[in-house]
Design a protein that fits this description.
Length: about 230
């Protein structure tokens, strides 16, 4: 099985994964839970092993796209490898970073991932310690995503991102429930995929709400939902 959930922020929102594991005793490392950005488990060299031990202790394999609150210096230090058709960072064998602009074929499902986002609180953070400019996707990553999608005829089963496209931002329910609804560069990039890609369902985190915007688009935070 493949599931998706929202931000974990390292240990801060980790408990939802514990509850999920307890409620589903049949889960094994052959099952996957995808975190839609702000994983936060790769944050500090001092706490790295302790944080990763928590995630490795879960009965399933953890996959994640990067969000805006990640330590990109640490994350980018891992070697890039190929897995299930796309580029990844193997943080551990059971903790895998799904990189930007990649298409993976996982259990007969095609999944496009595009992490990154804008920190609305970066004025109160310190660059290189609690904020990294790499949070914003690059033009090269956008072009790589476009090229990879072209190989699949601009059609995938699922899109999983941290931020969302501009059209989603204009949903009144999202604007009422989140303070992060300004339009930023990452939103404009994601709008290209909204306008040019056919998909079965799009899940995104970042906005700290669980909200079904349409039949095919969901903001996710505490919920853990199956990809079906």
């Amino acid at each position: 099985m493949i599931y998706v959930t929202g931000d974990t922020h390292g240990r801060r929102d980790f408990v939802k994964l514990l509850y999920f594991a307890e409620a589903n005793p049949g889960l094994t490392k052959r099952d996957y839970v995808i975190i839609a950005g702000d994983f936060g488990g790769v944050w500090s060299e001092q706490t790295l092993e302790f944080s990763l031990d928590l995630f490795s202790g879960l009965p399933f394999t953890v996959l994640f796209v990067d969000g805006n609150h990640e330590n990109f210096d640490l994350l980018d230090a891992y070697p890039v490898q190929m897995w299930k058709g796309g580029k990844v960072h193997f943080i551990r064998p059971d903790i895998i970073h799904l990189m930007r602009g990649q298409v993976y074929t996982l259990e007969y499902r095609t999944i496009f991932t595009f992490g990154g986002g804008t920190s609305v609180d970066k004025a109160w953070r310190v660059e290189g310690e609690s904020w990294w400019a790499r949070e914003i996707p690059s033009e090269q990553e956008l072009e790589e995503g476009i090229a990879n999608l072209r190989r699949f005829g601009n059609r995938v089963d699922f899109i999983i991102t941290h931020s969302c496209d501009e059209r989603a931002l204009w949903d009144a329910r999202l604007r009422l429930t989140s303070h992060k609804t300004g339009i930023y560069e990452d939103n404009l990039m994601l709008s290209w995929f909204e306008q040019n890609v056919s998909y079965k369902h799009w899940y995104f985190g970042h906005y700290h709400v669980d909200l079904q915007l349409s039949d095919i688009k969901t903001a996710i935070y505490r919920s853990i939902l199956p990809l079906v």
